[in-house]
Amino acid sequence: MRKTYFFHSHRFSLQPSKPSAAHRHFGANFAHDLYRISQRYLYHGDKPMTNQHFEILQFLADARLATSSQLARLFFAESPTHRSQIRRSNLATKQLKEAGLIYHQPRKIGGWTRGSSSYIWSLTYKGWKKLKEVNSSISLRFRNRVDFSQNHVEHTLAITEIFVELKELERLGKIKLEEFHYEPKSWRYYSDIGGSSLVLKPDAFAKIIVGEYEDFYFFELDRSSESLTRIANTCKKYIQYYNTGIEQRVNDIFPFVLWIVPDERRKENISNAIHLKLNNFWQMFQVVTLDEFSQFIHGEYNDRQQD
Asked: Taking phi first (over 0 means left), then psi (-120 to 50 degrees means alpha), and beta for anything else, what does residue 134 get?
């Protein structure tokens, strides 16, 4: 029987190093020093806009959708109680909405967002224009207000939730989030043997420091809406991309592919499909529920499994 030789781990031992330029990008560190801007940019109507207002706009530009609860946990975590976090978040979103810079979807949502129902926020075209005043990299094109489908909303909010939980782990000192890329920045472009151009489309990519190690991840968010055959085919695309060696030449290792699922039953089904259909390449993949995600990232999940 032919042997299959496995690849590098997703974890890479660290040499002492200075923070990367990417770490200073808002997606990883909120760029508290990025928006040192003049007063001529700080007004909508007759009310002052703070740096925090611009940070919320930038976050919504990256994440596309976020709930009031997620914004509260990201931007007002220093408040003594969750109630005061929500109150401050509601005030900020009310100010931005009155300025015409953000709007909320016509329905509320709970579930994966870690809390009771809450408004779902995104940028208006005016919000994109305002953000471009302080961030010239923003691509400005006309955007109509869209009432997204339920599946799209839940999937996008699940990705937002992953980022929020990583920032909470960083705030607790358990990890350091060096890079986080949403789609399409998380995508990888490559060619197959025949020269056809292909695109691998992870939901997100992250580079995380845990202790003395650098961990690299491709994240796939599953909402139990895809068949197991389609899940396996998605995994095979990662194997195909792995075999190109492109990622290994950039980072010396291939990122771990982490499937994040809503419940234990779905976790078991996807895990079984991966083991049955991917031969020894199953080691590239791990499946966890959202409840297990934070523990998995900073190591407590593996410690618990070994116990």
From this structure: alpha
